[in-house]
Amino acid sequence: EDPSLERHFKGHRDAVTSVDFGLNKKQLVSGSMDSCLMIWSMKPQMRAYRLVGHKDAVLCVQFSPSGHLVASGSRDKTVRLWMSNLKGEPTVFKAHTATVRSVHFSSDGQSFVTASDDKSIKVWTVQRQKFLFSLSQHINWVRCARFSPDGRLIVSASDDKTVKVWDKTSRECIHSFCEHGGFVNHVDFHPSGNCIAAGGTDSTVKVWDVRMNRLLQHYQGNSAVNSLSFHPSGNYLVTASSDSTLKILDLLEGRLLYTLHGHQGPASCVAFSRDGDLFASGGSDEQVMVWKTNFDTADYGDVVKPQKCGSSMDGTHGTGSEMDCDIHHKKTKPQDSGRTHQQQEEETSLANTLEHIMGQLDVLTQTVSILEQRLTLTEDKLKECLENQQKIIQNKTN
C-alpha cells in the first residue's frame, strides 16, 4: 500500500522550517519563519498551542527523548527549552553569536548539540544548560549537527560543502566528506550508527559508511534537498526538496520508491515518527502535513548482507555502490548495480596507488624547490665573492 496523507495542520503565518514527533505520536511540534512554535495534538478535535517568545524566525525544533522538553533554535541567536506540557516559562540562553540553525538531543537526553551561522558547533548539558565545548573547523555556516545513536560521534553539515564527523571525547574532527558540489543542508545518522546520509543544494543525497569513510550510495535529484530522515528500521530514507516533493528511497535496493506531492512550493522539512508508522513534513506553504507510511513491517527480518545499490531520485538507475549498515532484510529481490565487487576493489586499489604517487610527486617537487633555493643562494654568494675579489685587486692596483 502506498503512503497516504492522513492530516494537514494550518496555523503558521509563514514558512514551516522544522517538524518533530513527540513520544508515542501524541504530539507534533513545528517551527516557522513566523517566530513561533506550534504544538499539535494528534487526537482529533484537540486544539493546537502556539508558543511565543523568539524574537525572529524559528529554524529548528526537537522533542527530547523522554518527550518532556522541546528545544528550539532561532535567528535571534538563542536556544529555548520548553516544557511539552506547556507549564512554566521556557529556559532561554544565548547560544551563539549568529543564527542557530540546528538543535539535537543525545539519545540519553543528557545533552544537546547546536549548529550556527557563526561557523561553530556547541555541546550543552540539558539539566543546567551548561556549555561544555565548541567544535570550530567549518569555514562557513553550519546548517545541521547530529549526535550518533550511541552519543560518541557528532556529524555536521555546512555551507563550506563538507560533512564532518567529530569524536565527542577527543573533540577532534576525525573525517571530512567533501563529495558535495554545493551547500550541505541536512545530515543524519543511520539508526545503526554506522552510516550517515546528507542532502544539499547540489540536488543529491549521499550515504557514507563512517567506519570505512567511503561513499556507499548516491542519489541524484532535480532540486535542492532541504531535509531528510531515516526510517527507524534503517531500510528507508525520506527527503524534502525545493521542487515541493517528498521522496522515499529504498536503501536496500538503492532506488526511488515514491515521489509524493502535497506541498505548494518548496518542502523544507521532514521527519519520521519514532515507530516509523508516520512521517510529517512542512513547507513554504505554511502547512504541516502528516503522512501514513503504510510500510509492511512484517517484512523486517535478518540483517542484510552487503549488496550493490544506487539510484537517481528521478527514477533512473544511478551510480552503484555497497550498502552495509546493519539494515534489516526486506522481501524484495536485490537489484544489480552493474559493477562487481572485484571491480570496486580494483578501483579502490588504483585510487590508493594514484594517491601514493601524487604524494611522492609532492615530496619530489618540494625537494627540487629546496635545491633550487640553495643553488640560487650559492650563486649569489659566488657573485658576492667575485665582486669582493675584484674590489681587492683594484685597490691593490691603485
SS summary, helix count:
1
Distance linking N and C termini: 109 Å
**How much of the polypeptide forms β-strand, as a percent range?**
35-45%
Q: What strand order characterises the main sheet? A: 18-19-20-21-29-30
- Describe the main β-sheet briefly: 6 strands, mixed
What's the CATH architecture name of the largest domain?
7 Propeller
Task: State the helical fraction.
Answer: 10-25%
Describe the oligomeric state of these chains in a short phrase: single chain
Rg, Å, rounded: 27 Å
Organism: Dasyornis broadbenti (rufous bristle-bird)
Function: May play an important role in centriole assembly and/or stability and ciliogenesis.
Keywords: Coiled coil, Repeat, WD repeat
Family: Belongs to the WD repeat POC1 family.
Please explain how this structure is put together.
With 398 residues, this protein is mainly β. It folds into two domains: 289 residues, Methylamine Dehydrogenase, Chain H (7 Propeller), CATH 2.130.10.10; 47 residues. About 10% of the residues have low confidence. It has a six-stranded mixed sheet, with no helix packed on it. The protein contains one helix and 30 strands. Helix content is 14%, strand content 44%. This is POC1 centriolar protein homolog A. Keywords: Coiled coil, Repeat, WD repeat. One of its GO terms (cellular component) is centriole.
